[in-house]
Amino acid sequence: MAQKQKVALISVYDKTGITDFAKSLVGLGWQIISSGGTAKHLTDAGIKVTDVAKITGMPPILSHRVLTLHPKIHGGLLALDTPEHKAELEQYSIPYIDLVCVDLYPLEDEINKIGSTKESVIEKTDMGGVALLRSSAKGRRITICEVSDREKVIEWLKNGEPDKEEFLNDMAARAEIIVSRYCLLSSKYHSAGGYRGLLGEKYAECAYGENAYQKPSFLYKNLNKKDYLKDDPLAIFNWKLIAGNPLSYNNICDVDRMIQTITHIGAGLEKNFGSVPNIAIGVKHGNACGAGIAQGPSLRGDLRGDLDAVEKMLLGDLRAIFGGSVMLNFPVDEKIAEELIHKFSLEGARRLLDIVSAPSFTEEAVEILSRKKGKCRLLANPSIEKAGLHTLDSTSRFRYVRGGFLTQPNYTFVPNLSKTVFDNNLSRTVLDSILKDLLLAWAIGSTSNSNTITIVKENRLYGNGVGQQDRVGAAKLAIFRADEAANFAKGQSRVPQGLSLGEGADLENATAYSDSFFPFSDAPEVLISRGIKTIFSTSGSVNDEKIIELCKQKGVNLIMLPDSETRGFYQH
C-alpha cells in the first residue's frame, strides 16, 4: 500500500508543549491521529486531526476503557514493511502508523494520594497507552513516552533521520523501561509490597569493579524512585568532573559515603544550632579518617573559617589521608588547594589525593590539585555547599545477598541534643562546643562501618574505630588511631604551636560516640581512662544502669537515647 503521508498517533495525559510538537509534525507533512481530550486540545489549536474512532469504526466503549485497543490501530503499528503486510493493511483499510507519542495515566500519583482506594488505583491504571507503547516498540516505530523526547524527535526528523536503526532501537528500549516501571508500581501496590524490582539506566562504565578482574562494572541511575526524571541534585551523576580520570568503582563508593557523612554533619548542626558551618572531611575506603568544622577553638587564630576546617580535617590522620579522598562544603580557591596538598606534609612534599570534591574550584585551584596522568579527580557540585537537613538521602537502600536482595529505608535520623542538660556548671560556650563535638562524632560514627566508636575533640575527629566485632575493641581502636595519628604528626614539619603531641593524643575532655549500646562497662572504662568526659550512646543493654552509675562516679556526661530509635549501624 502506497503511503502518501507519514502518520503520527498522539494521545497524551501531559499536554505540555504537545501543540507545538503536533504543529511541527504537520509542518513536516505528517498526518495526525488522535482521540479524546488530546484530539480536542489539538483541534482547538487549529490542527487537523483524524479521530481514532473514524479509523476503527467504533466509538469509545465501556466508559472509555476501550478506545485504541483495536486491530486497525495495533495492526498499523505491528505491520512489517513487507509486501504481504502492506497488502493486508490495504485490504482492511488500516493506516501504517510511523510514530506514537503517548504517556501514561499518573498511576503513581494516585497510589500516593491520600484517600486513594484499590478501585481508584485500578481506574488510573493505563492499558491502552501501555499497549500502544509496546506495539510501537516492537514494530520499531518512533516511540515517544516522555515530554523531554518530543523536541529531540523533531530535530532528528529535520536532520534527515540519521542512524535511524539505532535511534529507533533506543526509543523502543526507553519505552519498555517506562512500561516496566509502570507495571512494577502496580504489582508492588496490589501485592502490598510482595513484589519489588530494581530498575536502572546505565550512566557510566568503570574500568573495573573493586578489583581489576571484576569487570565489566557500571554505574546506573536509579529509576525506582518517584520523579526519577527530576534528579537528586547530589546524585553521583550530578557531580561534574572538572579534572582527572573518570571515576572508578571504588571512587564512586567513596563519593557516596562522603556525601552521606557530610550531609549528616550539616544536618545535625543545622537541627541543633540553626546553621551549617564550613565542614571538611577526609576518607579512606569510605570511612572518615579526618573531619573538621570551623567552629570552636582554632589551632591558629588568623585562619579563615574554611581553612580552619581543612586544617582540622588533615590533622585527623596525616598518614591515612595520603591517597585518600576529600569533600568540602565550601568553594576551593588557591589557598585551600595549597593547604590540601602541602599543609603538614613531611618536609613540604606533595600530598597525593584521589578525589577532591567541593561546590566549585578556581582555575588556580584546579592547576594546584591536578596530578599527573589524571590520578586526582576533581568533582564539583554547587548543591553540596552548606548542605544540611534538606539534603539527606531518603531513598530506600538496596543490597544484594546470595539469591536475592535486601531493602530498607535510608538512615535519616538526626538527634536533637540542643536541650541536653549536663550535671555541671559549664558555660554556654563550652556546652555548645561539647554539643558540636557530639554531633560531629555522631554523624561520622553513624555513617561509618559498624561497629564504630568515634572520638572528637575541639571540633575535629581524633580517632574513628570502625568495623569492629565488639564494642571494647572499637573503643580501643578509636584511641589507637588517635594516638597513631598524633605520633605520626610529630614527624611533620609545619604543625602549629600549641598542638599537643605527647606520647599519643591528648584526649582529656574529649567526646565519644558509640553507634549502639554498651553491653558491658569495659568499653566506657577504656574511654574514660583516657580522659574522655562526654559519651553519647544508645540505651537498651541489660547493663545500662551499671554504665550510668560508672559515668556518674567518674564525673562523665552520658547521653543515652533508645537503641530502637537511634542506633547508628551503617554498611553492616
TrEMBL record:
The keyword Methyltransferase does not apply. GO terms for molecular function: IMP cyclohydrolase activity; phosphoribosylaminoimidazolecarboxamide formyltransferase activity. InterPro entries: AICAR_Tfase_dup_dom_sf, Cytidine_deaminase-like, MGS-like_dom, MGS-like_dom_sf, PurH-like. GO terms for cellular component: cytosol. Residues 1-147 form the MGS-like domain. GO terms for biological process: 'de novo' IMP biosynthetic process. Keywords: Hydrolase, Multifunctional enzyme, Purine biosynthesis, Transferase. Signal peptide: none annotated. Pathway: Purine metabolism; IMP biosynthesis via de novo pathway; IMP from 5-formamido-1-(5-phospho-D-ribosyl)imidazole-4-carboxamide: step 1/1; Purine metabolism; IMP biosynthesis via de novo pathway; 5-formamido-1-(5-phospho-D-ribosyl)imidazole-4-carboxamide from 5-amino-1-(5-phospho-D-ribosyl)imidazole-4-carboxamide (10-formyl THF route): step 1/1. Pfam families: AICARFT_IMPCHas (PF01808), MGS (PF02142). The keyword Hydrolase applies. Belongs to the PurH family. This is MGS-like domain-containing protein. It comes from Candidatus Nomurabacteria bacterium RIFCSPLOWO2_01_FULL_41_12.
